[in-house]
């Protein structure tokens, strides 16, 4: 960090001064006139830092002082006011913008080489003839292979200015080493993972986050489903941690009648900003089902709350995360930024769904463990509600505030060791690594398959599954899957489909026999 631990009390003391400094910079009442106006307290802080920089007996990194102080201040405000260092801001911005400038490949470092998992459809690499399984050896004069392959910074060697060119040296088993000139372009970061018909008249859309491009992606998906005959719709927001509010409001608008309240915000001065549905909605009559779980947060909860409070649809799953604070990102002038909470949002009935954070950030972020311990993930009866936070929808349905959206239809979580182990194997990349090796042994064949051909021709047999278990054991993961072999095979096939065809193919396979989706289907049949 550039300083000794013995100076920590000094730095924490400076936090108070830096707090005054930030407070003066984040005055929203008249930003153009007052944000950078002279302030004697700011000047005092600047002088103190200068004194330390020039006169202190030991060398001190004053940049580190400021960063420690800023983090300390924000941690004591609320769990979602955060400092974003310069080196992290670009990646976060790209994710929320929904695209970046690059060559359009999904890859990972396999052994000592950058290996292409797949190319983005219609992207620069696909147009240049790069295929899944190719190894990228060099980008211009930069070597991208070897025992000392440094994973951090690899993406930057493939990114660049829009329409700039990069000379890639590629190795392909069937062709050897050859050069490809790729013109960099805009590469989309999809936030709509999948959209397809679950069955006759029932469409499905999976949204993984709310970025700038989400509504546009969602609108395209929704229109296609309507064209295919969708009269009812499932919106899957499981594990969607949120993002920008605007796309969530526009999505909700598609399902709500004109002038219906979607949500409202309130700041510390009591100023209220209402958000209403418009006449643009194209799905105001069919049945709507929203899937949520304990990781559905923020903008996901805004959408679910708007549907629930307006009696527009059915919320299926488990209680959502409970984030009802609104942040605004502001630059600090050196490439870093602060994301500061500026207001609270409320659902149409007036509910705040922000869970308490009075006991500090650690307890706040570990609240999931409490849900696990008290049995809430297994039974709706274990969900704790406060009668003082009881609200009523226009049709008389009782809903509660105080910490997440409580579903109308509860679906328990698979907390068995098997379920958690399979989830870990998937998320850790171990399953992906195994599947990549399998595909790589017959890459030409797999690359020749269409998605429909893959679905029909590829079956995961017992030998394939057992070979994966041996692969996991060699890497220190012992898995006992007796009576769960079919579930493992489904995960393996879904991972293969993802590497070959993308996230949509993964969702179509993993959703087969999904308990929440099955619940929706059974609800429809009863009506």
From TrEMBL:
Residues 175-356 form the Tail specific protease domain. GO terms for molecular function: endopeptidase activity; serine-type peptidase activity. Pfam families: PDZ_2, Peptidase_S41. GO terms for cellular component: outer membrane-bounded periplasmic space. It comes from the Bacteria. PANTHER family: CARBOXY-TERMINAL PROCESSING PROTEASE CTPA, TAIL-SPECIFIC PROTEASE. The lineage of its organism: Bacteria, Pseudomonadati, Bacteroidota, Flavobacteriia, Flavobacteriales. It comes from Aquimarina muelleri. This is Peptidase S41. One of its GO terms (biological process) is signal transduction.
